[in-house]
Amino acid sequence: MSKFWSPFVKDLVPYVPGEQPKLTKLVKLNTNENPYGPSPKALAAMQAELNDNLRLYPDPNSDLLKQAVAGYYAIDASKIFLGNGSDEVLAHIFHGLFQHDLPLLFPDISYSFYPVYCGLYGIRFDAVPLDEQFQIRAADYVRPNGGIIFPNPNAPTGCVLALDAVEQILKASPDSVVVVDEAYIDFGGETAISLVDRYPNLLVTQTLSKSRSLAGLRVGLAVGHPDLIEALERVKNSFNSYPLDRLAVAGAAAAFDDREYFEKTCRWVIDSREKLVAQLQAKGFEVLPSAANFIFARHPQHDAAGLAARLREQGVIVRHFKQARIAQFLRISIGTPEQNQALIDGLGEL
After folding, report:
1. What's the CA gap between 15 and 293, in Å, rounded?
2. Pairing of strands 104-107, 147-151
3. Is residue 209 part of a domain?
4. 1 close to 9: Cβ distance less than 8 angstroms
5. CB-based burial, 88-102: b 16+ in 10 Å, e otherwise
């Protein structure tokens, strides 16, 4: 701790991202990256931007990408906000839309960046317990609040909340912003974007890091009523007017336009997920129902930390969380069939 730190910095508890190992021969199933590369059309679009125009600032509004998202979801561009990864989008939401006089609500087992943002922006929160099956219960969110946020599908569980349950939460808190964080929605859930026109308090966030294989590009978005979008634009333009560079805008727009590649790779991931679930269940694992590109699993006779260590010795990395309720679970990203087989081989006969 430096004497030059402000009291504010001294009290921060930062987010800890998943390990990004330097070794290249490891089978990396710990950070939910897509095992299949970006759309060839996205790569070509980015390569075309490698020219003298890089000396110029990018479009601060990223209109090319906004139009691609608007066309994909058949919505008006005024309902779209873009940022440098969904983490930046979420940061602006926490800063600009959640109220401080009542606690923010989110699940007790959820994306661990949420409490970090609360610490950063001085927001009180209540962590709402998932039920015994690790599911979100809509009725638990019917209470006074300064805002609500939850991933759907949830992370790290992978469990998805049906759209009618999302609507119950929205109806119960008409005076609060409800954020549905859809980082994994394309692997089995139903997006809440269809509800945006009916609920002015709804904001849906998404990322291109997962289903569109562009984690290295850092592109995120939010969809909601223009009033909510205007608030985010005010925050963004008081922080960084150019969050997306020229390569990111071109590549992300092309990725949205290439529906065929997107749908094909999502199917591959879903098919691999179902096969891996069956293989793990055959080895005695309990696997939570997943609509994401990862699974959450535990074995009744083996310690999760020990299994993670054993897999690492076999060259396979998975994510282990130390939080009490889930300390015996492993979060396993879905890889290629060959990577998934390496996981099964690494577990051996247990």
Report:
1. 21
2. parallel
3. yes
4. no
5. bbbbbbbbbbbeeee
d(CA 169, CA 148): 9
Contact in structure between 122 and 129 (CB atoms under 8 Å): no
Judge contact between 130 and 136, C-beta under 8 A. Answer: yes
Two structure tokens written together for 239: 């922080």
Query: What's the pLDDT score for residue 4?
Result: 83
Q: Nearest-5° angle of CA 210, CA 130, CA 177? A: 65
β-bridge partners, 128:
107
Q: What is the pLDDT of residue 23?
A: 61
d(CA 13, CA 6): 14
Specify the DSSP element, H or E, that contains 133. none
What domain range includes position 330?
Answer: 15-37+259-347
Rg value, the chain, Cα: 20
| pLDDT one-digit tens code per residue, 237-294 | 999 999 999 999 999 999 999 999 999 999 999 999 999 999 999 999 999 999 999 9
Among residues 224, 160, 165, 149, which one has the least CA distance to residue 186? Answer: 160
Q: Are 96 and 228 in contact (CB under 8 A)?
A: no
Q: What's residue 76's pLDDT?
A: 97
> 106 with 235, same domain?
yes
Is residue 58 domain-shared with residue 96, that is, in the same domain?
yes
pLDDT (tens digit, 9 = 90+) per residue, 338-348?
999 999 999 98
Predicted local distance difference test score (pLDDT) of residue 273: 98
The full DSSP string for 38-100 is PPHHHHHHHHHT-SGGGGSPPPTT-HHHHHHHHHHHT--GGGEEEESHHHHHHHHHHHHT--S
Domain end, chosen from 257, 273, 294, is at 257
Largest CA distance in the chain: 60
Instruction: Mark whether 83 and 129 lie in a shared domain.
Output: yes
Residue 24 is predicted with a pLDDT of 64
Burial environment of residue 105 by CB neighbours within 10 A (0 to 12, 13 to 18, 19 or more): buried
Cβ-contact 118, 74 below 8 angstroms: no
Task: List the chain residues with pLDDT less than 70.
Answer: 1, 15, 22-24
pLDDT value for 253: 98
